[in-house]
Design brief:
The chain is α+β, with helices and mostly antiparallel strands. Helix content is 28%, strand content 18%. It has two domains: 22-264, FAD/NAD(P)-binding domain; 287-371, no CATH class. The chain is built from nine helices and 16 strands. Helix 3 (96-106) packs across helix 4. The relative contact order is 0.13.
Length: 387
Amino acid sequence: MSDITLDAKSPEGPLADKWDNHRFEVKLVNPSNRRRFEVIVIGTGLAGASGAATLGELGYRVKAFFFHDSPRRAHSIAAQGGINAAKNYKNDGDSIQRLFYDTIKGGDYRSRESNTYRLAQVSVEIIDQCVAQGVPFAREYGGLLDNRSFGGAQVSRTFYARGQTGQQLLLGAYQALERQVHLGTVQQFNRSEMLDLVVKDGRAVGVVVRDLLTGEVRSHSAHAVVLATGGYGNVFFLSTNAKASNATAIWRAHRRGALFANPCYTQIHPTCIPASDEFQSKLVLMSESLRNDGRVWVPKEFGDERPPNLIPPDDRDYFLERRYPAFGNLVPRDVASRAIKRLGIGVVRERYGNLFDMYERITGENPYERPMRIYPAVHYTMGGLWV
């Protein structure tokens, strides 16, 4: 058996300069020649829809294939809390270097540093692109984009649209995609399943797809294939992922010779709604942004069966604040008091009203009066095909 060499394909040079140098050295395609090239995109969630729309805007011919009847059905719509960017609007010391460091540290120092630094670099531009696509991010009274804190950070860098960030991001990408469909640069193939990749000399040059309505099997060729089909969280018994996120595309690519790396890097999200039935097929996420104005606790006495709202503060163990005093529930201990008492129900409803309403519909409990019950569950997957 021959040894497998994993090439990260990272550009040469100092970390802070390598991607800028790479952009200067990479071969470009003349705008008048781009229409000669065809790109296939599998999946039209947030990554696939925005990628297909951007390629269409650049002048390439794009074919987009997806399971659903509309790109708006993608699971990206379920994201809630926000998206990080090093804009430093709060003037609290944020920077590309700090975002890079927080991300590397949050990944237990195992992330690919060159890619992480590039992500920190383009984070500001990603927010600007989303705004240009019409995403209605929350804004302060003066008109600047508002932001808040998320886990693993001591600065405010998370840009959000109430508790519906994924929905608004997806609608913005969908609008950009449909604009390109109208202009003729993108063709959509809904209700289509990728059955196989066509590989030549180690490169993907096409796909075989099945029309889920007629059963017809067809092949499509292209100069490049983009796989944007979501994560593999549903290999676990219960996760927050939509059932259509079934990992079949990456499995078929792996079968054709692509390497699959780091499947162990799976996020167990701390704030999901507990399963209420043994026949439940998936779990529902509560945004971790709720921890900004709340505190996570368990009863000090194991087996304490009193209703949560009847357990006094002295009998609660705020274990995050005890174990990680520098971060606690994202903010200092003296600030993270009960937000409903400090700010009033109206302010909390303005920030998290849709999340509280969803929680009440699912559990039948009023989260304004009774502490929320949370449960850890598989949410996000960071492994995937090696590129």
